[in-house]
Amino acid sequence: xxxxKVKLIDLxxxxxxxxxxxxxxxxxxxxxxxxxxxxxxxSINYANKPDPSLFVKDxxxxxxxxxIGSHILWxxxxxxxxxxxxxxxxx
Length: 91
Fold this sequence. Notes:
Pfam families: Transposase_23. This is Transposase Tnp1/En/Spm-like domain-containing protein. The chain is mostly beta strands. Helices cover 4% and strands 37% of the residues. The chain has one domain. The chain has one helix and seven strands. Strands 6-5-2-1-7 form a five-stranded antiparallel beta sheet. Strands 3-4 form a two-stranded antiparallel sheet. The two termini are 13 Å apart.
């Protein structure tokens, strides 16, 4: 799954960004916390909507626009792989 291009959606199911899955290793630390089984590490390439809040914030990143070009944690259920809005992690 790493290296896969994805779309990130918010709680209202609106696309907010595009990126690449970097890791799903539950032990890896990203933004000061382990990825666990709820999140995945995503590199943000493009912000469709720059102002929505990140699910996980740190000292320098609060909104999507702050995360462009960096790696963040995003809730797995809100990571989509195609236009049919299939979650990357659904069975």
